[in-house]
Amino acid sequence: MRKEDVSGFIVYLLILAVAVIFGITVLREHAANSDMETYVYVFFILGAIAAGVILNAVMFEVAHILGARAGRYEILSVCILGLLWFKDEGKTKFKFSGYDGLTGETKILPKKDVDKEPNPTPYLILGSLFYLVELIIVIVLFTLFNNRANMVLYNIGYFLLVVVVIGGMILLYNILPMKLDAMTDGYRMRMTTNAANKIAFNELLRVEYAISQGQQDVEIATFNEITNFTAELNLNKVYMLLDKKEFLEAEKLLDIILNGKQTLSPKVYNRARAQKIYINIITKPIEEAKEFYDKEVPMSERRDISNDFSMVSVRTYILMSGLLDNSKSECLFAINKVRKCFNNTPKQRRKVEAELYNDVLKRIDEVHPNWKLSEYNIVYEEPIEKKKKEKK
Q1: Nearest-angstrom CA–CA distance, 362 and 356
Q2: What is the arithmetic mean of pLDDT over 262-275?
Q3: Residue range 214-234: average pLDDT?
Q4: What angle separates helix 347-367 from helix 228-243, to the nearest 10 degrees?
Q5: For residue range 327-350, what is the model confidence (pLDDT) as tens digits?
Q6: Where are the domains of the chain?
Q7: DSSP state of 83
């Protein structure tokens, strides 16, 4: 299980705990005093929950839109609970779609020809400020309505209280500064705390948009100031160089990343290291690669690569096991993780990663033809929307 999966589970558990505590304390007391039949009260609470989800989902995306405009970004699309509005050839269109978020997602692109570098802070923080205003308004209204002399206003007050608690749960998920099963504003805020990361954030948005539009040869900026975020962007350039078989240039860029080891998380460092090991093995004769492997790759790094759930680590470990350790069992052990790792690979890297992985299996089959590892190839198909854009 990935670290973000565990973190996500803990956060969901925390949200559930808040819901249970709120239910058995505040709502139990209100149920006893509301003068509603049990079945009516159930519909009352369900309606309040639905209203809370919808109203807060809309509020957070409106905040994203206004924050993006304040930060000098162009709005590409807005998705609220699976309802997607987007621009296509200058026209606003609608469809149902998945999204990367708890209740919605607003995709943005840095504006061109602006005096200052676009600033993501308003886009990331305005949702929290909007919720603070919502919270203050509801507290004031709840205080005014919390009197059983007028049962209609009394119940409306608790209805609004449920709405704001639902908003608080959504905000809790979205504001935590960690990577969960979706990309949260809190995580992005943590990653864009310095000037280099803000520039890298904008560059990543530009690159991902260009790739999504079917551009085959996207120019990607690289960064010498290494952080986790700039390293991730540099790795995008590494993938482009690997796709072109420009291994020497890719290795130079990896060295820049690896020289910033002190500023990198172990995960980012290990994956950059795995890329370099991969390049050394496929670009050198077997005996020379073996000498490099024995001398430069300690057991601790081999163990880290073996345990990491990413395509770069899996592909590298299969290559090490098949060509240098001659272990079919270890190859199959790693292959069992491929499908999950591939599904967790960013979409813009999947095509290249599938080709690199299939090439690894082919190289091993050339040395060990009876292993028939090519039977485990990844069959990758371009997304339908991307095919349509390329045809245009």
Answers
A1: 10
A2: 90
A3: 82
A4: 50
A5: 999 999 999 999 999 988 887 788
A6: 3-189, 218-391
A7: E
> Could you tell me which residue, 197 or 383, shows the higher pLDDT?
197
pTM score over 0.85: no
Going by their DSSP bridges, the two strands 91-96 and 104-110 should be labelled as unpaired
- Compute the distance between CA of residue 190 and CA of residue 175 in angstroms, rounded to an integer: 10
State the amino acid at position 153 in one-letter form.
L
- CA-based nearest residue to 120, from 187, 67, 60: 67
Which residue in this structure is represented by tokens 């956060």? 11
> Does residue 309 contact residue 341 with C-beta atoms inside 8 Å?
yes
d(CA 313, CA 277) in angstroms, rounded, equals 10
Contacts of 248 (CB under 8 A, 6+ apart): none
- Of 44-53, 57-66, 210-219, least confident by mean pLDDT is 210-219
Apex CA 341: angle with CA 222 and CA 231, to 5°? Answer: 15
- Comparing C-alpha atoms, which of 240, 184, 190 is closest to residue 211? 240
How many CB atoms are located within 10 Å of the residue 375 CB?
9
Single-letter code of the amino acid located at 92: T
